[in-house]
Task: structure prediction
Amino acid sequence: MLFSSRAIVIRTVKYAETSIIAKLYTEKFGMQSYMVRGVRKNTKSAAFKPAQLMNLNLLEIVAFHKQTVDLQNIKEIRCQPALHHLHTDFIKTSIGMFMSEVINKCIVTEEPDEALFGFLHQCVIDLDTSTSSVSLFPCWFLIQLSSYLGFEPKGEVNDNEVFDMENGVFRKEVDYIADKIPHPLSALLFDLQHTEAHSLNTTALQRQELLQLLITYFKLHHLNIGEIKSHHILREVLE
Result:
């Protein structure tokens, strides 16, 4: 049966000589894999173009959906809205790679989640259209995403308090807290939870340290995440 849905390109893998398997996060069906046939044909008559399936592209798709199969088939693809900077700005491209890797590892369910989809869809638009610094965007993205995944930081940070990563709360520092985000990075975490990222002033070292600690936080609360490789690129481009 044919359905239409909004979708976000998360990952693509070449298949055979002319096709691609595209992993899309869809508004109606959650995470799905689609066979896109003939997309790598170098002909003007090809129904699909490789540019349509670039990382984090926002799509309107018409596709067949069967609950009994793991690989669905796409009939129509339209980029809507089109992205203008995410694939041409090296820093934004690097952040996009990081976002898609995190999404790919954190979201595996085929169940739809309209709130989560709406958040991710808007994140891509905000990153693409931002005219301010995006150096804190990866940290902001992880903090905001954690709330949709069920382990958002709780409480408020006071003077010299740390963030207890195991329990997900701000608290006074005590010796038995093994995994923690120290002050003043804990204060930066709290600010990013409640403030637009571009309005905060930070150093490259603070951004790098907080990003690494937030990845550790995700590993503690999301067992499927494993190693995030793309953040090493971010360390270089966001200095």
Observations:
- The first strand starts at residue 2 and ends at 15.
- The mean pLDDT is 92.
